Amino acid sequence: MFGLKVTLLAAALTPLAVAQNETDLCCTALAGSSLKARLLYPGQTAFESRLDSYFDVKQQSLTPSCIVQPKNTKEVALTIKTLTAVSSAKSCKFAIRSGGHTPYAGASNIEDGVTIDLQYISAVQYDSKNSLVKVGPGARWNDVFTTLEPLGVITTGGRSSTVGVGGLTLGGGISYFSPEHGLICDNVLEFEVVLADSRVVTASKTQNPDLFTVLKGGNNNFGIVTQIKFRTFKYDGMWGGLVVYPETTIQDQFKALIKFSNNVDKNVKSSAIVMPVYQSSVGADLILNAYDHAEPVVRPAAFDEFLAIPGNVSDSTAVTNMSDLAAALEGSTTSSVYFGTLTFANDLRVMTEAHEIYKDVLANLKARATGDWQIYVLYQPLPPAYWKDSAARGGNVLGLERFNGQTLCLYQPYISWQGAEQDALFQQAGADLVNRIRAYAVSIGADNPYLYLDYADNTQDPLTGYGAENVKKMKAAAKKYDPKQIFQKNVPGGFKISKVA
Ligand SMILES: Cc1cc2nc3c(=O)[nH]c(=O)nc-3n(C[C@H](O)[C@H](O)[C@H](O)COP(=O)(O)OP(=O)(O)OC[C@H]3O[C@@H](n4cnc5c(N)ncnc54)[C@H](O)[C@@H]3O)c2cc1C
Ligand SMILES: *[C@@H]1O[C@H](CO)[C@@H](O)[C@H](O)[C@H]1NC(C)=O
Ligand SMILES: *[C@@H]1O[C@H](CO)[C@@H](O)[C@H](O)[C@H]1NC(C)=O
Ligand SMILES: *[C@@H]1O[C@H](CO)[C@@H](O)[C@H](O)[C@H]1NC(C)=O
């Protein structure tokens, strides 16, 4: 009698006790499957080193209950199937990680949840017969470039070696090859996707074309992408590098950039970025420009206006290759980072005012910030050449076509610092830049609603910026491909279409 009572009591208590540690239940469920050998737990060296490999310290500071590292598409499907089958008061929460280079906390890592880490789904295979390359989303761009370059071909890829293929592509993707070949997402021929019900589907122009379109900009709202096929094209080297100037040249830089941006159609091999920069370790106000040309041609005419600006203090431009250029922009993983974004007209008035606002924000940081910190503000062309082929290739949801062929300027503060106690100071500096410049752009009618998702801070709303028609498309696709809203409710990281009005 007594024995029976105890058993009943234990039975009654067990589910309750388990329910208090939901994420443990999720890891336990994964451990009970063939994924057992794919799990990493807090305290293990491999677990800690995966956390350390996030680009941003705020993402590194989140501790998932476990990390699962599927080795192939089937194992991703089993992961989803297992996590969605756990029935309890709260369902399993998870994060999806490719390169882990989003700088806000929670984008691709999670506290008390499961992080699905695609590190091992990173094969890069060139298919010469079809002029395409198959890439696992966990690959870094360096893996893609070093595979393709020796074969005399390349694809549109990110400009930094360590950034992940998965996240960058699903947010749009800007490449040195974009003036000629378009945004990176528009160079995708096919996605392989694991849906919320663990089915594996193909999304292309001909198969599930609605899913194909929304993945290009819609990021992690619809499924886990497990393979991407990209177009490739002929390539025989690059020219480019970084040139540093005194800050006093800023007006000439802006004038050169405006002209350069307006002439992208005539110079489809050439890219330029203008970046006012301050590094506490250097203590000087400087302008850092990136010039890159998709042929091994020295000082091509597209850059004439920039090359006429005298007084540079350093110049690394040379005939080079994509992997060397990407290695030069490798991101370090030892700082807290703010990214934010804004789009405005290719207009000297906005750039000039943006620079005044930058000087004001910078003065405040110089007065208050401690330790090692740096600020770069990137001005990049966003010309119609980037989306001219988009519709013909199955379209995306970025909504750029609706700007009637207007050449835009893409603005991004990139700020890095040490110490969580300074998070508020630096986050506010980034927000001030974006908000004050937007207010000025609005005041002269030079504003634009587009926000580039891959640069957006989590206080921003890039999906709304794609326009009402694209929001509708994404909502319809989310409802069709994920009726139980797994990617809305169980994957809290990223920009959620269900939160868009
Ligand atoms: C040093 C540096 C250089 C950069 N250079 C460029 C550049 O040249 N051009 C450019 O356009 N951008 C650039 N970026 C921005 C970059 O595109 C974003 O940071 C991007 O999110 C990074 O992708 P990731 O896979 O590394 O990130 P992650 O943080 O792993 O992923 C980003 C988001 O995508 C989701 N996601 C990732 N993989 C998948 C998948 N397989 N299926 C579904 N959802 C997924 C994640 O859940 C997360 O919300 C750069 C960033 C850094 C830090
Ligand atoms: C829940 O489980 C995780 C992972 O096993 C563990 O680290 C954590 O301490 C547990 N939390 C509670 C409240 O028991
Ligand atoms: C790129 O150029 C460097 C020399 O600068 C060379 O060592 C390297 O092998 C080249 N990479 C590829 C993939 O061709
Ligand atoms: C930088 O300055 C040097 C020295 O004056 C000059 O030779 C070089 O061409 C300049 N580079 C650029 C990109 O303007």
From TrEMBL:
Domain FAD-binding PCMH-type: 60-235
Highest taxon, organism lineage: Eukaryota
Cytoplasm as UniProt keyword: no
SUPFAM superfamilies in the record: FAD-binding/transporter-associated domain-like (SSF56176)
Keywords: FAD, Flavoprotein, Oxidoreductase, Signal
Molecular function (Gene Ontology), one example: oxidoreductase activity
Annotated signal peptide: 1-19
Keyword Cell cycle: no
Family indicated by similarity: Belongs to the oxygen-dependent FAD-linked oxidoreductase family.
Official protein name in the record: FAD binding domain-containing protein
